[in-house]
């Protein structure tokens, strides 16, 4: 129709009012809305986004489980819409991946809502690029430091500002030297991990940077100690040592933990939330907790509530949840 006002134009053989557009001469009837289908779709959406079982829902509605299945059969084929705006520039975007059985879900969100997601088999730079292709370059990207995410960011937006999740950096540090270290150097590095998540101001950041430098100087000789293959029995050679390697650093994990902190300080990826780039108008977060403790957890709870669902139905359920959040 051309959008012109309609006028009455008699009735059909069934007695239904016929309408005519005097501008384009198009004729139509005002059919009744499919109220039952609309009602079934609302029930369907409410059900998949809740933790209610199908049996309980059928009982509550006073129908059989088979009737409920019949109502929902075609609704599974509805394409979940997307509200992603590929041109909107956000202050801060969080990206992360989580697994559901054999599927991996990559999510990009802000502090208030989900903006894009992508299904794949595993976290890789190729799959993260698929996610990043859906959105415009934000001012700041916060990530847990997954290799695929960092590689994709470097390829897609080489000049984007990155805020590494401080909680993940702390976890990686503790994983290298344990949570209950015995050696003084390990204790000093563990203290750095504890200090990291308690940085709330530029002064705290300066003290942390100084502490990292002081730890490097204090234990410099110890960190340089080497182990030679010729001095130990073959059975005591670490598995990660290559067959033709004649020596390796004795305190490999401690070196890795300290070097990680130094590298992130040098790259200025630890304290972006304290000194945000130009154009940022909101307070920045220093972790990906909004994703891991919020969106990802709620999705896993939803999957648990609907356990036993077909894999494809589970994916569709997640898509609807992400669209509505």
From TrEMBL:
Entry keyword set: DNA recombination, DNA-binding, Transposition
BP GO terms, sorted: DNA transposition
Claim: Nuclease is one of the keywords in the record: no
Molecular function per GO: DNA binding; transposase activity
Coiled-coil annotated residue ranges, if any: none
Domain of life the protein comes from: Bacteria
InterPro entries cross-referenced by the UniProt entry: IS1249_transpos, Transposase_mutator
Pfam families, per database record: Transposase_mut
Listed name of the protein: IS1249 family transposase
């Amino acid at each position: 129709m051309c959008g012109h006002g309609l006028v009455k134009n008699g009735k059909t053989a069934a007695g239904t009012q016929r309408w005519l557009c005097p501008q384009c001469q198009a004729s139509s009837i005002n059919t009744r809305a499919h109220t039952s289908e609309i009602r079934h779709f609302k029930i369907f959406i409410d059900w998949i986004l809740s933790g209610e079982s199908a049996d309980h829902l059928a009982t509550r509605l006073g129908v059989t489980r088979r009737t409920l299945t019949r109502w929902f059969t075609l609704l599974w084929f509805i394409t979940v819409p997307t509200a992603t705006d590929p041109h909107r520039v956000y202050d801060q975007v969080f990206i992360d991946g989580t697994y559901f059985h054999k599927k991996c879900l990559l999510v990009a969100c802000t502090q208030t809502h989900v903006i894009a997601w992508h299904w794949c088999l595993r976290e890789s730079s190729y799959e993260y690029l698929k996610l990043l292709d859906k959105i415009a370059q934000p001012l700041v990207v916060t990530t847990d430091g997954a290799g695929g995410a960092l590689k994709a960011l470097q390829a897609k937006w080489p000049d984007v500002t990155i805020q590494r999740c401080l909680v993940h950096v702390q976890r990686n540090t503790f994983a290298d030297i344990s949570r209950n270290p015995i050696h003084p150097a390990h204790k000093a590095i563990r203290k750095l991990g504890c200090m990291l998540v308690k940085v709330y101001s530029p002064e705290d950041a300066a003290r942390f940077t100084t502490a990292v430098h002081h730890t490097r100087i204090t234990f410099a000789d110890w960190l340089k100690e080497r182990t030679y293959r010729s001095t130990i029995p073959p059975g005591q050679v670490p598995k990660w040592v290559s067959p033709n390697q004649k020596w390796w650093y004795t305190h490999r994990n401690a070196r890795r933990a300290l070097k990680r902190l130094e590298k992130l300080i040098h790259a200025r990826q630890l304290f972006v939330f304290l000194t945000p780039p130009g154009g940022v108008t909101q307070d920045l977060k220093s972790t990906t907790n909004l994703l891991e403790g919020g969106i990802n957890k709620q999705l896993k709870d939803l999957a648990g509530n609907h356990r036993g669902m077909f894999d494809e139905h589970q994916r569709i359920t997640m898509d609807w949840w992400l669209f509505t959040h």
